[in-house]
Structures are given as C-alpha cells and as structure tokens.
Amino acid sequence: MGSEMFLSKANTTFALALYKKFSEEDNTGNIFYSPFSISAALAMVKLGTAGNTARQMSEVLGFSAPGSSQPEGNSCQISVQTARPHPIQSQMQTRMPMCIRKARDDKENVDASFAQLLGELNKPDALYALNIANRLYGEQTYAFNEFFLAKTKKYYNAQLETMDFRSSAEASRININNWVEEQTKDKITNLLPPDSVDSLTKLVLVNAIYFKGKWEAQFQKEVTVEAEFRLNKNDKKTVKMMQRKTKLHLSFVKEANCQILELPYKGKDLSMIILLPNDIEDDTTGLEKLEKELTYEKFKEWTRKDTMRRVEVKVSLPRFKMEESYDLKKVLTSMGMVDAFDVSKSDFSGMSEANDLAISAVVHKAFVEVNEEGTEAAAATGITIGITSITIPETFIADHPFLFFIRHNPSESVLFAGRLSSP
Q1: How confident is the model at residue 280 (pLDDT cuts 50, 70, 90)?
Q2: Rounded to the nearest 5°, which phi and psi values hold at 235?
C-alpha cells in the first residue's frame, strides 16, 4: 500500500468512525466537521508521544490496527537484528520486497504523507481556494524538545510562536483565535472559548482549513424554487431548492437503498459526494440504515469512478448553511484515546523531557455554505496541552436528509463530512 493510500485509508476510516460517534450523540441533528483538520492536529500531537499514549492515538486515528504496533495494512513481519548481519543477509535485505522495507518506515511515512498531501492541497495555481495552516503556541518559559519542534515544522509546516500563558492567558487566547479567523476568512470565530487557556497551559496546537470552490457546472439562480424538504416521516419545511440538468457520475447502491452523486468543483480535484437514501425508512432522519452500512471499504467501493456511471441527470439540491462546534475530549476518549488526557498515564516524553503534560481539551469548529455558485467551507481544531450498479434514475432529488463528503480526488482524502437533516 502506497504511503498516500495508507494515509487516505487512515483518514477516511477515522472520518467515518468519528461520524458514527457524533450520530450516536445526536441521531437527528445536522453534523458538519473536518476529519482532516482533526486528524492533522492530533497527528502533530502524536509526534510528541511515546508508549501506550502513542499506540492509542495511532489506533484511533487509523494509523495502526487495534492491538497492533504495526501500521494497518502491513502483513509483513520484520525481525530487527542488533548484531552485525552476515554478508548474505545484507544482500537479502537489499533485495527485500518493497512491502517489507516499507513496513519499517510507515510510522515516519504517516507524517511524510501528511507533508506530501498538504503540499498537494495547498496548490497556489488551483482553480479553487484551499488553505490549510498549522501553528504551535508554546509557553515562553517551557522547554520543548527540539526534535519535536523540528518534526512539526518539517512535516506540518507548523511554526512555534511563544506565548505568555502564565501571566497573560486571556490575551494569548484572543491572539490564537485571531489567527484562526484570519486563516479561515473570518468563518471560524472564537475557536478557543473563554477559560480554555489558563496559566497552566503549556502548548496549543491549531489546524485551520478553508475551502471555497465553484461547481464545475453551476446551478442557475433563476431556476431555484421554493420546495418542501421532508425532515422525517411527519415533518416538512420549505427551502430554496437549486436545480440543474447535466452529465454527472451517479449510481444506485442496492444494499443501502441509496443513490450516490458526485458534484465536482472546477478543476475536478475536489468533489462533493452525496449519499441520498431513496426514501425515509425509519422514524428519525431516514439515514439509520445507511449510517450502519457505511465503512471505509464500502465508501471506497461505492464511490469508485468505474462503479458510478456518467449520465445526464436532473439534480435538485437545497441551499444550506451550517456552523457546528464540538468538544472532542469525551468522543476521543470513548474511541480509545484515554491516556493522552490523563497526566498520571500520559507519555509526552517526545515533546518535553519533563514529561509532565496531558491534553486538556480538543475543540473543533466547522462552517459550510452551499449555494448555486459552489461551496465555502472552513474548520479549525485546537488542542490545548497542560498539566453495485443497476438501472440509474434520471433524477436526483435531495428533498430529505442526506450525507455528504468533500473529497480530494487524487488522494481520496475526505476533507469535510456532514449530515444535512434540516437546511
């Protein structure tokens, strides 16, 4: 498995696992978040961990299989010799199959793959606006491991800015929030809430992501009409429904009884993937069956270009806007990332020789607006550390709840994910 595909699988697996946790907490409301932002921020934190803390984070983020120290997808077993190898052994190692040699390097490749993907996503000549920025804010009196700082700068382009958390915590919080607002074109405000930073804070890691893309074929405003959106089996609301007819990739998945539509943005590097059940089949949003069916393997299979057909289709899609906030400490702990939040168990020895740190909060905010022109989306994550195809219909009418994903097609990485229950 190539390092890029390894990261895509890890990120998408994490995205879907996180979605299911959000859905468990609220099975009827809107959901919107950037799994890529959360994953990138936590991956930076993981650079400074060791032992059980690192293992738990790696498993939750999808970098390794549960109960295994090896990254997921590596079936090769490697024996590392401390003694000097026999000349024949050296020749064998030189000719070692790539899958075996790569298994040694995948922990490094997680970060190297992030660096490669960040470079691809932040293309200055792209036909869309996409900016992903990372930043470290460290207490000016605290001694951080230089190796950790060098790695976060090398792989995540995350510069360290020293702050006076000890005596000016509130001013520091405002400073960080202002940087996030600037990076997200004012879409994400007040990422760090009051009292989230105090005199015991040693480090705040932030990832900010902003995207604005125009549809490859835009909806015409003059044909947008008022129409009913079915919230559930009993309730409806009137929304602005956009409409257009054009050739798009569309498929029907029989096992999940849903249609899947790809709406590409200009340049086709990014697309919105919409999963729409044929009808509301349960007493909530009508998405329960689809949500249970959805796994990384199925998502990848269902959205493959050779699985979907390019056909002329009439699309009806509501305009919508969402802004969501999440405190991820409880969610990440329930997913298995326990030790990082407990100073008596955490191992941040790679971040500081004092090894007296633990994560105090992981906060995430995300914004999305979809209209006739295209999509504008932004998100930020802050981490504070202290003490099958069949006959396809010719219409795609999104007049009831659906799932949607904004994906970078070359890498297959999911940048944003959401559920629209009520426009």
Answers
A1: confident
A2: -110, 145
Q: Is it true that domain 3-66+107-212+322-386 has CATH number 3.20.20.70?
A: no
Between strands 358-370 and 320-327, the pairing is antiparallel
Amino acid identity, residue 93? Q
Assigned token pair, 375 = 């999509």
**Confidence (pLDDT) at 70:** 46
Q: Give CA–CA dist 124/132, Å, rounded.
A: 12
Cβ neighbours of residue 195 under 8 Å, at least 6 residues apart? none
Q: Which sequence spans correspond to the domains of the chain?
A: 3-66+107-212+322-386, 214-320+389-420
Check for a shared fold between 3-66+107-212+322-386 and 214-320+389-420.
no
Q: Is 212:376 a contact under the CB 8 Å cutoff?
A: yes
Three-state SS across 212-273?
A: EEEECCCCCHHHCEEEEEECCCCCEEEEEEEEEEEEEEEEEECCCCEEEEEEEECCCCEEEE
Nearest-angstrom CA–CA distance, 364 and 110 = 22
Task: Decide if 332 contacts 56 (C-beta within 8 A).
Answer: no
Residue 122 pLDDT more than 60? yes
Please determine, for residue 257, whether its predicted confidence score (pLDDT) is greater than 90: no
CA separation for the pair 42, 98 (Å, rounded): 28
Q: Which helix (H) or strand (E) holds 115?
A: helix 98-121
For 10-65, write each residue's pLDDT tens digit: 999 999 999 999 998 888 899 999 999 999 999 999 999 999 999 999 999 999 87
Residue 73 confidence (pLDDT) above 60:
no
Sign of CA dihedral 73, 76, 81, 86: negative
Ramachandran area for residue 62 (φ above 0: left; ψ -120 to 50: alpha; else beta): left
Q: Which residue has the tokens 């990120």?
A: 11
**Cβ distance 299 to 15 under 8 Å?**
no
Angle at which helices 98-121 and 35-46 pack, to 10 degrees? 120
- Its CATH architecture, for the domain 214-320+389-420, is Roll (2.30)
Name beta bridge partners: 178: none
8 Å CB contact between 353 and 278: no
User: 33-42, 44-53, 74-83, 200-209 — which is least confidently predicted?
Assistant: 74-83
Distance of CA 127 to CAs 34, 218, 349, Å? 21, 14, 43
Residue type, 3: S
Place of tokens 């074109």: 185
